[in-house]
């Protein structure tokens, strides 16, 4: 059990490091693909910068990735989140390897960048019997 937890923590830290690296790259103006400044246009960013390989995802997966940015706590964090999505993902075919889930009416895909308070919320929720995946989604959206 301890090995499983250690591997999960290592994987989460690796994913968060990747997200932080992408966050340092300014990708321009944000917006939802249906209502933002480039509504109806599939994102077509230049070749990846900073060594981050782009993943192809379906339009539905892309919409979830952009939509989950609304739960970030500040407007700057929301803008940075949308830029990360444009930088890391391109619309194409469904990606079965993208971890998407819905709990309490909130859909998210990929690794979630949690604040310290949200991580604390996750630990308390898991200790209270909630699954880690559900706790992450609920603490991300509601804390």
Short description:
This protein has 143 residues and is mostly helical. The protein has helices at residues 2-23, 59-67, 75-88, 116-127, 132-142, and strands at residues 55-57, 89-91, 100-103, 106-109.
How would you characterize the overall build of this protein?
The protein has 143 residues and is mainly α. The protein is built from 5 helices and 4 strands, in the order αβααβββαα. The chain has helices at 2-23, 59-67, 75-88, 116-127, 132-142; strands at residues 55-57, 89-91, 100-103, 106-109. The strands form 2 sheets. It has a two-stranded parallel sheet with strand order 1-2. A two-stranded antiparallel ribbon has the order 3-4. The protein starts with a helix and ends with a helix.
Strand content: 5-15%
Helix content: 40-55%
The largest pleated sheet is described as: 2 strands, parallel
Order of helices and strands: HEHHEEEHH
- What is the terminal-to-terminal distance? 28 Å
Anisotropy-based shape: globular
Number of helices: 5
Average pLDDT taken over every residue? 77
Task: Please mark out the parts with pLDDT under 50 across 5 or more consecutive residues, or reply none.
Answer: 13-48
Across the major sheet, the strand order is 1-2
Give the SSE layout.
Layout: H1 2-23, E1 55-57, H2 59-67, H3 75-88, E2 89-91, E3 100-103, E4 106-109, H4 116-127, H5 132-142
Parallel strand pairs: 1-2
Antiparallel strand pairs: 3-4
Helix pairs in contact: 4-5
